[in-house]
Amino acid sequence: MDLSEMVAKVEDGIRLNEAEALSLLQSSDLLAVGELAAKANRRLHGDKVYFNLNRHINYTNLCVNNCAFCAFRREKGEAGGYALTLEEVAVRAAEAAAAGATEVHVVGGLHPDLPLDFYERMLRTIRDAGPRLHIKAFTAVELQHFAAISDRPLDEVIDRLQTAGLQSLPGGGAEVFAERARRQLCPEKISGARWLKTMRTVHRAGLRSNATMLFGHLETLEERVDHLTRLRSLQDETGGFQAFVALPFQDVGTRLKGVRGPGGVDILKTLAVARLFLDNIPHIKAYWVMLGVKLAQVALAFGVNDLDGTVVEEQIGHQAGAASPQALSRRGLVRLIHRAGRTPVERDSLYRELKRERGGC
Ligand code: V47
Known about the structure:
By secondary structure, the chain is an alpha/beta fold. 44% of the residues lie in helices and 13% in strands. β6 (208-215), α10 and β7 form a beta-alpha-beta unit. It is globular. The termini are far apart. It binds ligand V47.
């Protein structure tokens, strides 16, 4: 397919179709695809690059599912398994607040025993420990688990969690929606259709969320495009996704033996195509934990306008071999963005710009 046709479409703000997205992913002209995505990004965000001051809290790695790509998960009773107590969660939230964070990002495995009431208490604990922290918590997969263990409808679960302090959702657990790949990757996990349906309910409840795609393992390029297409359709309907986060597969210690994660070219091209194809999702995030700090910086020239945050403590990517540090400081993030020739902008969890005199994390 002719790239110049797509250049004209992007310049006129005309939506790309699936065949075009596929041909961009297949293109060997990385820089041309990147420049096009950078142009689309510039039109939306100028030279601003967003980041936030946040802390991730992975409250447990015990999980009743056993996804082949996951090196984080442990079986109940297995060495290395843990579940944070509410006191331990409170300490982390208080530390985050004291360090100037504006958000906690709280996700975990599907714990075999904890009741719904535990998750409500965890949210209240965080709210008490850091009343000004925005609580972004629980993937669509966790929400469905809570509905199943409590035998309550999803609407009610969401309502109870919102009452306890839930303010938005991260985008994890989406993996790739295609049934073929999912059967091999995560047969016990809710289906892609269910993930999307859950997010529809979340958005209708007035909550914003992100959307992820775990890529560079067993999926085909067609399946990547299918994933993006399903996200774009739901976004047309709800408008509830704030950011798309492409998660390159980390390949150490998982059960996908012999499967190597994607290389830098594939990662950059996938982010660029996401920017071009997802014309209705405002932000494209390069999660530096999974990309590595330097590739995340380069991704800013490939359609990316968000670097996530300070993170502080991360388990899921690092257990699977991510070579990035555990944390970045505010200064480190600002320097990284400046050195890419762009303007760093600290945001809150709903992408409102924040002005800070000094400091924080
Ligand atoms: O849901 C698991 C993925 C996700 C591996 O929404 C893996 O702002 C790569 O969703 N290699 C958790 N990825 C992380 C996540 C996230 C991170 C940062 C920001 C946001 C956001 C969301 O990580 C899981 C799963 O899809 N994952 N194992 C792995 N081996």
